[in-house]
Design a protein that fits this description.
The complex is a heterodimer. By secondary structure, chain A is α/β, with parallel strands linked by helices. Helix content of chain A is about 45%, strand content about 15%. Chain B has one domain (about 65-290): Orthogonal Bundle (MetI-like fold), CATH 1.10.3720.10. Classes of the chains: A alpha/beta, B mainly alpha.
């Protein structure tokens, strides 16, 4: 009996020790010469490029190891980042969508004093500046519109296609008809909720005015239920164009069955002339490319007056931002993370990674490397000419899913325009 | 040992054996559950460092959220159909595969395999089948049923989910039914044969009543899995087309993490827990009464 009691005491104390040890482990510090930082990557398509860049960064800064953690497909950066924060284990650098930065502002570093602030392009940090402190590094400018396959449209118009000529809804329809007459399908509309809800419909908000303040006011009015969308000309014009897209869509027999993967395939192979998508699609298009890399963007027209705002402007904005955690990461880690940001902007290898490897359009004036990828180049051209419209990047987090579903319903013909308008207005009333 | 005196002595012994499990259970089940209930009374958004108590406002929102109740009804419909189909298919498979068929253990293993594949992978495999393979076949053989992807039509997408669910779980339930069938005493069946009972009579009067425990377990498992379906939902239909196949778990998740309304999402999860608990407890309670002894 006696030995058994001892055994009990021993076993109990062992359990206690194990728990205490397990709980106490996080207090350990790492060796000082070596700093290990992590980056939570929410741009899945550049995961391998980022890993290669992390290696190049280590060659220049032997004391710093950068590890890239991907956000799993299907999860939003916000979900993953907030889960990491909830578990007390946030990444040193987190890649967020623009609209999410504000939620994290109490937990991340103020970056207003960084060197690259002086070289950042105009208005690239205004959406992440709160109380005149900027909390995020603008990583990539992205733009979207109609991507055209030059080989197909050249053949359709019989000669060199001039993208500037497509500046009204009528001109666009003519182009569709010409492509159809040349024996190809005019366009493919990929029916993903994020494409329709986060990219297509927000053009109706962004197209209200070239003045960002007016657009912001429009969104505020939408929330307050003061906007009558049914009589809004930009909104109706955009949906008129959408009706055209539905009419000339290659998949119109079953509009919702398309997948994202089908888009780059039929555009690259030249089965269609046009695809509504953004410059991030280049890696996929290039693997099917038959137009020897000749692609470009057309704006989405919203009226038949060529001078209306939006008819000649391409929608673009800084879409991905980097924030640095200040809660759980040490001062050394924060300093190392700042070094990485500077390395991307100012070192030759870093710039090469951004522009040539990752096909990113950087938001910094000092980077003069020319993009190799035709879509980034097309967006850059529009930016250089000042022909841009700021994409809506601070919409409510569930906007794309909810409005995307309403747009799909309209697209499939299961709802008419009045229903769609009603659903959009109802949605905005529920936004807090 | 049990007769040993003193509360502490007895408690110590129990703690030695149940302590670790109890600790794990408390830490990963009970504490988060209670903390979750606490969160339903706050307006936390999932990330902010501060939140305030809002009383029962979140529960009011749950009852005003028509989409939640709509997807709950849809889930009920889904559960009702899948429970019936899974159990019919599983029982028939089990019945055939215990009748002395050649190579029956091979078939048993084969039907069980879908259950070993995770819901996410399975969803992607079937997504490919529904939107590529069947569409291709439909076009080649001009079958109007398959000429467009099932996943693009609200009704067919719902049935696609049911088909995949039945395919996934029928094998698992089959294993339970096989065990149940093998436990039916051979002597009473033999006695019945001598008395002139045919196969159908034996099945109806003896096998089915004796297998009630298996039915209780299988119906309970399929009910519970049906209500909690999420992985298949997200990988096969993503709730689409246009949210028409969004089951209640997915709605709760999106409310909490996509709309960033953690309090309301958590409150919906709690209401869902209560409803599912009532349904499953009622099922077990009432079907227990049908059990018989041989």
């Amino acid at each position: 009996m006696k030995t058994l009691k001892w055994m009990q005491v021993l076993a109990l104390s062992l359990i206690v020790v194990l728990f205490v040890a397990a709980c106490g482990k996080s207090g350990e510090s790492e060796s000082e010469s070596e700093v290990k930082i992590t980056l939570l990557n929410s741009k899945g398509e550049i995961q391998s490029q980022l890993e290669a860049a992390a290696k190049a960064f280590k060659e220049d800064n032997p004391g710093i190891t950068l590890e890239i953690i991907p956000v799993p497909a299907g999860q939003s950066p916000f979900e993953k980042a907030s889960a990491l924060y909830a578990s007390g284990n946030p990444a040193t650098i987190t890649m967020l969508d623009t609209g999410d930065v504000e939620k994290f502002k109490d937990r991340v570093l103020d970056l207003s004093g960084e060197k690259w602030m002086a070289d950042a392009v105009e208005r690239s940090t205004s959406l992440t500046t709160f109380d005149s402190k900027n909390y995020a590094f603008p990583l990539a400018i992205e733009g979207y519109g109609f991507i055209y396959n030059k080989a197909v449209v050249d053949q359709a118009v019989g000669g060199a296609f001039d993208p500037a000529a497509i500046n009204t809804t009528e001109a666009l329809e003519e182009l569709f008809q010409k492509i159809e007459a040349s024996g190809k399908a005019p366009l493919i509309v990929s029916p993903m909720d994020w494409s329709l809800g986060a990219h297509y419909l927000p053009l109706a908000y962004a197209g209200q005015s070239s003045d960002p303040a007016v657009v912001a006011q429009f969104v505020t009015d939408l929330k307050a239920g003061k906007v009558d969308l049914a009589s809004n000309s930009v909104y109706n014009g955009l949906l008129d164009t959408f009706d055209l897209m539905a009419k000339y869509n290659i998949d119109k027999a079953s509009p919702l069955s398309g997948t994202y993967e089908r888009g780059p395939e039929v555009l690259g192979k030249g089965e269609v002339g046009i695809w509504f998508q953004g410059n991030w699609a280049w890696p996929q298009i290039s693997s099917f490319d038959t137009a020897s890399g000749q692609y470009g963007f057309l704006p989405v027209p919203i009226s038949n007056n060529a001078d209306d705002f939006g008819n000649t402007q391409i929608s673009s904005a800084v879409s991905k931002r980097l924030v640095l955690d200040k809660e759980k990461n040490t001062a050394e880690q924060q300093a190392a993370a700042k070094k990485w940001l500077e390395w991307m902007v100012y070192s030759e290898k870093g710039q090469d990674f951004l522009v040539n490897q990752a096909n990113i359009i950087p938001a910094f004036n000092n980077i003069t490397l020319e993009a190799k990828d035709p879509l980034a180049k097309s967006i850059s051209d529009y930016i250089a000419k000042g022909k841009t419209q700021d994409s809506m990047s601070t919409l409510p987090a569930d906007h794309w899913a909810k409005i995307g579903a309403s747009m799909q319903k309209y697209f499939a013909g299961a709802a008419d325009r009045a229903t769609l308008t009603k659903e959009i207005q109802e949605y905005w009333k529920t936004v807090k | 040992m049990i007769t040993e005196k003193g509360l502490w002595n007895r408690l110590r012994l129990r703690l030695l054996f149940t302590g670790p499990t109890l600790f794990a259970f408390l830490a990963v089940m009970i504490v988060p559950f209670l903390y979750g209930i606490y969160l339903t009374f706050t307006n936390w958004d999932g990330i902010s460092t501060t939140s305030s108590l809002v009383g029962f406002q979140n529960y009011v929102s749950v009852f005003q959220d028509t989409v939640f109740w709509h997807s709950f009804l849809l889930t009920l419909e889904y559960v009702f159909i899948t429970v019936i189909l899974i159990n019919i298919v599983a029982f028939l498979l089990a019945f055939v595969l215990t009748s002395g068929l050649k190579g029956q253990s091979l078939f048993r293993a084969g039907f069980f395999v879908p259950n070993l594949v995770g819901g996410i992978v399975l969803g992607f495999v079937w997504q490919f089948i529904f939107s590529n393979v069947l569409v291709y076949l439909g076009k080649e053989m001009s079958l109007p049923l398959f000429d467009a992807s099932w996943l693009a039509d609200p009704n067919k997408a719902f049935w696609a989910m049911i088909i995949v669910t039945v395919w996934q779980y029928a094998g698992y339930m089959m294993v339970i039914y096989v065990a149940g069938l093998m436990n039916v005493p051979k002597d009473i069946l033999e006695a019945a044969s001598i008395d002139g009972a045919n196969l159908l009579t034996k099945l109806r009067k003896m096998v089915l009543p004796l297998m009630v425990p298996s039915f209780i377990v299988c119906i309970f498992l399929s009910l519970q899995r049906g209500f909690m379906v999420y992985d298949l939902n997200i990988s096969l239909t993503k709730g689409g087309p246009y949210k028409s196949t969004e089951m209640v778990s997915m709605h709760v998740y999106e409310k909490a993490f996509l709309s960033r309304d953690y309090g309301v999402g958590q409150a919906e999860a709690f209401v869902l827990f209560l409803l599912v608990a009532i349904i499953t407890i009622a099922q077990v309670y009432f079907s227990k009464k049908m059990e018989v002894e041989a």
